[in-house]
Amino acid sequence: MNPKEKESEEHEPEVHAYDNIRRVGGELESFIVEKRDGEYVPAPITDKIFTDGPLIDIENVGTLAREFHRDMIEFNPDPCISLHEHYARLKTMFWEAELMVKKVRPNAELVGLALNQIKPDPALDTTIDDGEYSRKYVYPSSRYYSFIDYYKQLGDKAVREFLSMGLVVSYQAEFSVLKEELAHLYHLRRNLVPLMVAICSNSPTLNYPDLVLDGRITLYRRNFSHGHQHIGIPTYIPEDFDDYLGTLEGQPLIFDAKDARAKLSVDYRWVRLNVPTSVIVEPREIDSQPSILEDMAPQAAQFGLIEENRDNPLIDSVMKATPEMLEKSLTSAAKSGLEGEFFTSTGSRPMYDIWAELLEIAAVNLEERGFGEQMFLKPFERRIKQVKTPAQVFIEMTQKRGLTKAIDRFVECMKTDKPLI
Predict the structure, then answer these.
(1) Closest Cα partner for 287 from 379, 364, 352, 369?
(2) Structural Rg of the chain based on CA atoms
(3) Between 5 and 300, the higher pLDDT residue
(4) Which of 37, 65, 72, 173 has the fewest CB atoms inside 10 Å of its own CB, making it the most exposed?
(5) DSSP-assigned beta bridge partners for residue 32
(6) Crossing angle for the helix pair 182-200 and 292-305, nearest 10 degrees?
């Protein structure tokens, strides 16, 4: 054998389709706001932060990324083994991002709102000029402008609705799965969507101020009502990963992907899969929470629920809910939060009642993992005890003290990890 050929083979990276160690990760999005004359306004300053490219590397931690709108920033921590590591990385990235934000705009703050209440909604305000709005708020990325160009083909209304995506941010929790686990865990995560919305709803939509609504539901259904992207709960459960890839063939996509795996970034709105070196299940329905510590609660809950649960009667009941039942449950969760109803073939139960049992299951499984991760469930335990979501608290604070004071509280939670509930 030629020595050079041997050296090449030795240095060729080995690619694994699936890992044997479950890893945790997640992308957290945050708005940047600032106070002017005692009131908050959007701070579209990421073009001044990301001057050398779309990413800023935080060594041994992860990357900060510019997002769709200029007042949105995304934390992308490197995957790790424990929730404690994940939390530490998110906190480190927050401190780094805060320094960068303050350097550009001393009065600016990162805030844990899910919906930017102070931002104009181009889909509702007919006086907004789409082009001017794009130039002011949308980051000048070829990818984002390609989206806008595509939506222009659907008409002015579609463009305005698409631009409204910049009103909402999320925490996209991630965990790796083995090939043999895929069908079960993808199915489980799909069926947990209404329950996650019920407990994670954080700040209501602008056009429904009197209801506890998760902004993502209304906006997604409004934005993707043209038949070009999936709406609501996915109906198909793949048997394995190859089967999942096969379901993407022939589906309408914004971009023509040369590699089938690239299509995974533009498929289901609620649960998607990625293919780095393992299969990553990435729920999309979780609002960004009021603080980094509270963002860990949905991650801890789902991480606890995906372990050793196939024989549990409650999990079995949730798994048997049909897509039609899930859509009905989703609407109930969006309107009523934890007081909403989860529907199954045997009837319905209040979301808070189901969550009380789910948290017990998650706590036991997390304790058995041996990392002390059950501590991250505490925000959810408080919400269950008071039957309140952050969205309800936000409404109450706004009604009693005004919008600025309500956002003050959320800014404080993000800075200090002080509990909202």
Answers:
(1) 379
(2) 21
(3) 300
(4) 37
(5) 110
(6) 140
The secondary structure of 37-102, three-state, reads CCEEEECCCHHHHCCCCCEEEECCCEEEEECCECCEEEEEECCECCHHHHHHHHHHHHHHHHHHHH
Instruction: Specify the amino acid at residue 403.
Output: L
Structure-block tokens of residue 395: 């409404």
Report the 10 Å Cβ neighbour count for 226.
15
Q: Name 73's bridge partners.
A: 30, 66
d(CA 178, CA 237): 16
Percent of the chain with pLDDT over 70: 79
d(CA 162, CA 180): 37
| Measured distance CA(148)–CA(365) in Å, rounded | 44
Structure-block tokens of residue 47: 């073009």
Residue of 25, 156, 133 whose CA lies nearest to 69: 133
**What gap in Å lies between CA 324 and CA 29, rounded to an integer?**
30
Place of tokens 């007919």: 126
User: What confidence score (pLDDT) does residue 70 get?
Assistant: 93
For residues 203 and 391, the answer to whether their CB atoms sit within 8 Å is: yes
Whole-number Å distance between alpha carbons of 81 and 79: 7
Token pair 């001017």: residue: 132
> Tens of pLDDT along 268-317?
556 776 655 567 888 888 999 999 999 999 999 999 998 866 678 999 99
For 331-373, the DSSP string reads HHHHHHGGGSEEEETTEEEEHHHHHHHHHHHHHHHHHHHTS-G
- From residue 121, alpha-carbon distances to 29, 62, 167, 214, 248 in Å are 19, 32, 7, 16, 32
Quick one: which of 113, 110, 134, 121 has its CA closest to 49? 110
Count how many residues are written for the chain: 421
pLDDT in tens, 20-69: 678 899 999 999 999 999 999 999 999 999 999 889 999 999 999 998 89
Cα–Cα distance, 330 to 343 (Å, whole number): 9
User: CB–CB of 179/241 below 8 Å?
Assistant: yes
Least confident among 40-54, 101-115, 163-177, 364-378: 163-177
